[in-house]
Amino acid sequence: MRAAAVWAVRGAAAALTAAALGHTLWNGISEPGTAFAFGVLITIGELARRDTRDPAGPVPAEDRQPAPLGSAGALAYALLGQNAGHPTQHGVFQTVAVAVAAALVGVVPHVARGHGPALDHVARRVLTVGFAAVCFQPLHNSGRLEERVGQGPCLVLYLLCLLGLTALCDAVLAAALARARTGWPYGPLLRDELRALAGIGSAICATGVVMALGVAVAGLWALPVFSVPLLLTQLSFRRISAVRTTYRQTITSLARATEIAGYTPPGHARRVAALSRAVGRELGLSERELTVLEYAALMHDIGQLSLVDPVPDGATAPLPAAEARRIAELGGEVARQTGVPAEVAVVVERQADPYREQPLAARIVRVANAYDDLAGGARQPGGSLAALEELRLGTARDYHPAVVEGLARVLRRDGSALGRDGISAVRAG
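Given the sequence above, the corresponding structure tokens read:
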């Protein structure tokens, strides 16, 4: 069923692309100068795109639109009604054809480097641009839009509402595709997409409207002028992403200190972090909550560095409650000294508390850590049934039942992938 949804979206995008290219080739290009200018803008946007190597997984907000200038240019062309005061007549099919052709030219260097855009991302671009063009071009070309809205502030409001609706449709579509690929709950995925609209998404919509209105008044010279702010915004997001990547690498290196010192088995922190994030996603945590959960899971054993004698095999699950709580509190103190967010340190220090008193993130880390300790690092496709059964037996006192069942669902669906040491499922948030 999920695969059918993906192929339905791809099929609709392919059909629209074929119809647009066929119509444009048969009838020729209307106003080729304008089409060429917008095509160059979209191509430059694609050339400046940010490579996303794993579009199936959770993607930070700044990476949800890897080519914001290309998206803004395509939307501006879809909403273009005049060029320096002269009406345009390019229509829906030519809009889609120019957007697709320019995007294909722009992604050639990325494909050559092995980092081409995801097929689903291209399908979304085609459908969203087509949606915006369908809602604007026929009304404009027939004259009904000017009769009902005019050329003043009402037109600007109409364009903003139209782009807001387009962005909402794109978010719904993106969440549905992510749900189809991963099987994760739809609600949190949609919530993450909607939150991303407040960042780069709003900049894309605003730039698209300003470009369309600027070209309508000043002509094509408005395109480079209004492209600069979005390019600077994209550069800022890239720098933020680089800082986050460095920050996460620092936390990962710190988490490995317990392995290097011989307190925990190799790969334990990474396995717990990957499993915690998967369970958190299964239980509906947002992207920001998943980031806190991942950092806390990576650092959950950092308190063991304060011990004189290492815990056998680094397994804290079988320890007496008082000893486990002492190690957790030491870990929280160490985490605070490293400068991580306070909520990460809280999760680390409360992972050994009675589960009814824990925040959800601490419950998840506790269950994931116990599973890895009890399974002894063994990874079978579906997980260790004995370890999972022991966790279920402990739900009356030690482990939250909903978290344990979430773990069971994750292991049934993703057990073989989660078993790889150095798992790729642990991503920057």
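Confidence is low (pLDDT under 50) at residues 52-63, 378-383, 419-429. Try to locate this feature in the token string yourself.
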